[in-house]
Design brief:
The structure is a homodimer. Chain A is an alpha+beta fold. Helices cover about 40% and strands about 15% of the residues of chain A. In chain A, strand 2 and strand 3 form a beta hairpin. Chain A starts with 5 loop residues before the first strand and ends in a 7-residue tail after the last helix. At the A-B interface, strand 2, strand 3, strand 4, strand 7 and helix 8 of A face strand 2, strand 3, strand 4, strand 7 and helix 8 of B.
Chain lengths: ~375, ~375
């Protein structure tokens, strides 16, 4: 995508730095370690936008006292396999981890577990949580709502977040099938990059402030919106809007969190919503024990066969053929664990600024 | 969409006819009534493709003895809130109804219930099942896999069905939010209609037999495929493919049904898959008791507020503004319950052919 020069860092170096930074804000070591590892996993899997590049935003919110560094994550209502959890305004990475554990513990006891979470903050990549379930031979689900960026189909206002959905299924010899997708057509980061490079974006990604299709990134940035997956009515934009709505309701209407245009910002520079309709942002986690449906080994071997059949689809002319959901991230993981995580100059500058603010050393080697 | 002349029928007339037709194939009256009501609900909600228009296909399969008219729908494996159900090769409408009931009974006992179903057939509209859950103050989920029509992104073969996802949330004064979407960009019926009218289709709906984008419906019909929601890589076609994969795995890999390109046909004229990898087609049902998460009335009022805020989004220029998922079907339901169900000449001809075959009278009044 970008031609900017990058510098490689070992994951452990970034993790250790991140842990110390979090600890310097009063976050307990156990929580700091968890959060640092989730950010690093994002970088390792090639999802650069949700890794250590986000540390600067977290530090901004922690510096202003907008995030509780030592939350007590607790169940506020439950019935056997389901519960609502209050994240006590902790780091989303910490709240998310513990709520997801609760879903898996319920699955262990009741076959499945489903947790809707309020009073949380930005939780990193949705895929971290669904991948955790694989360690316990479960199918993992994860969703979160996020700050408004997306217009519902036929709307001219940002009303919903990019609200991602993730679900993961374990394979036997094959890597897992990991679905992790935002319900918008494109990510906001891509609009910012196009603007920086003074390039147009494909028609179907964004609208201007009147809700009209545009290919000029500044039209979106100046009061326009991202389009939901499907883009236009003809191509199914009502479906992406419906999926974003599903995520918003399961994560926030059901938990008592803020929903739709009232979701609080995940960085200081963002607009504060006009009113509050609940507590913090919302997540939704699910876990299902495979063994409750089918022998675990039989299921994993069926997944392998499914993967093999899909991968062997006749390729479309001019392409390298069909990929399996999660496969590009899996290949990136193998590569980056060996070669390190490439960070661009602006992320390195942010980390240096954090180093200066906190006194935690950060060097480019 | 179409300018074909239509004739209106009262829902009860079509239901009574359908019940008698099913009974004539040895289907017990209770099952026949259920199935007829599900087909009629589809017509009433304006989803013409999945209503009485499908009776001809069901009759074809029943006539050939390919569907068991009196199935014993049974749980073959379970752990508290989750189970796998074998549909005994019954009508999907009957199997689906009973499996969905099992999910709701589990939700009543364990807070949620999740059923993966094998050995079933075409189950009608996904939304019927999720709507049923609302009667019990639950959130309903429903998915099914279907006969192959869709190419995975960068593939040049039909490998997946249009695999729909439905989820429904009850409102207080507002009608429910009902999400019900196929994971393809467009429905196959629209390609057939365009071909009949000798019209082109929008770019992004279909590929030709080499996997290239096409606007000529006959290219899809002659060995091409539908595109997944998102259409192209730039607009997120990998996401629609991932969602279709999720449905395929939850409904069929997990239940022991046929998956991907091996899903059996739902009508006689369709191609028989090259091999069998399980039993019948697959469904997945979920139900969650709202009361396990939040006071039911509080949740319903929060849904009303969510609906009101979304509906009041500033409209995009040149549009009537934002609709709520399920709203068009709800408005159609009010209209058709009063005015009747409009059937076109080819559907009426099919019903007359069924009347002739079975001896059940059918008149145009």
């Amino acid at each position: 995508m970008s031609t900017e020069s990058k510098q490689n860092f070992q994951p452990d170096y970034l993790i250790d730095f991140t842990i110390e930074v979090f600890i310097s804000f009063g976050i307990p070591k156990e929580h700091a370690t968890l959060a640092a590892r989730i950010l690093a996993l994002s970088d390792i899997r090639g999802i650069d936008s949700h890794g250590v590049a986000r540390l600067y935003s977290y530090v901004g919110l922690l510096s202003e006292g907008l995030i509780n560094p030592n939350p007590k994550v607790s169940i506020i209502r439950e019935k056997k396999s389901v519960a609502t959890v209050d994240g006590d305004n902790g780091l989303g990475l910490v709240v998310g981890h513990f709520a997801n554990e609760m879903a898996m513990d319920k699955a262990n006891k009741y076959g499945s577990g489903w947790i809707s979470v309020c009073n949380s903050n930005h939780y990193g990549i949705a895929g971290y949580y669904s991948l955790e379930a694989l360690k316990r031979d479960m199918i993992g689900w994860s969703m979160t709502n996020t700050t408004k960026l997306v217009a519902p189909l036929w709307g001219a206002e940002r009303m919903l977040g990019t609200n991602p959905i993730s679900i993961a299924f374990p394979g036997w010899n094959e890597p897992p099938v990991v679905i992790d997708l935002a319900t918008s057509t494109a990510a906001y980061g891509k609009i910012e990059i196009a603007k920086r490079h003074q390039e147009e974006v494909p028609s179907g990604w964004i609208t201007d402030k009147d809700g009209g299709l545009s290919t000029h990134p500044e039209d979106m940035i100046n009061g326009g919106a991202l389009l939901p997956l499907g883009s236009t009515r003809a191509l199914g934009g009502h479906k992406g809007y419906a999926l974003a709505s599903m995520v918003d309701i399961l994560t926030a209407v059901l938990s008592g969190a803020n929903w739709g245009p009232f979701v609080p910002p995940f960085a200081l520079r963002q607009e504060i919503p006009s009113r509050s309709v609940g507590k913090g942002i919302g997540h939704f986690f699910g876990a299902m024990e495979i063994d409750g449906f089918m022998e675990v080994d039989v299921f994993k071997k069926r997944i392998d066969e499914w993967v093999s059949v899909m991968r062997n689809t006749k390729p479309a002319k001019g392409t390298d053929g069909v990929l399996i959901p999660g496969e590009p991230e899996h290949l990136e993981e193998i590569k980056r664990k060996k070669e390190g995580i490439p960070l661009n100059a602006s992320v390195i500058a942010d980390l240096k600024a954090i180093s200066k603010q906190t006194g935690i050393p950060f060097s480019e080697h």
